[in-house]
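User: Here's a chain of 237 residues. Predict its fold as tokens.
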Amino acid sequence: MTSEILLLALSAATIAFVHTVLGPDHYLPFVAMAKARGWGIPKTLRVTVACGVGHLAGSVALGMLGIALGIQLSSLEWLESLRANFAGWLLIGLGLAYTAWGLRQAYRNRPHTHWHSHGGIAHEHEHCHHEDHVHVHEKSTEKQSLTPWVIFIIFVLGPCEPLIPLLMYPAARENMAGVFAVTGIFGIVTILTMTTLVTLSLRGLDSIKLKRFERYYHALAGSAILACGLGVSFLGL
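Assistant: Prediction complete.
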């Protein structure tokens, strides 16, 4: 491995870590959906890894094609920018739709009180008529849920902006083995950082008692996805 490739490999690990940490769209949607859908950590990590691989695969394939065909870097950067805008607006659309649906579910599951009389003693209790039905329905339809697939498709369409211009093209000036090495390191660090952040976030949230907000989980998840989409589209995150 040449000194240039070694430097690029170290840069790939650093850039992958920083890019993932500073891009909440790499982990926040998974944390939000896990809390809203009641996913366990193993399932959440499976979805995270699948989306991470899809996220990387699109840019890797485009970069390899550009290197093989000798396409100018400016052309690929334009295409990657277009993909980023498209993915950002898809996140915004999904976030808006999911927030609206979550607010509807929260309204339907709002708590209310009933008065009862037993043996001449009147008392009241609070409950939600819709709550049990919602939980049973979600459990029975979880296997058919399209949510993971929608997030996966958005991640596949979304680019990994620093990969091609900062790492793949410079490595290609040395040799193709360097391209594979740099790309592999970038991908591994990205996936490890995503799964670590998701796991730490979920464990942190599990330690906080948020029962009074449970009926708003879907709306909060939608809002988190919406915020990520706005960040991608308007802040370049």
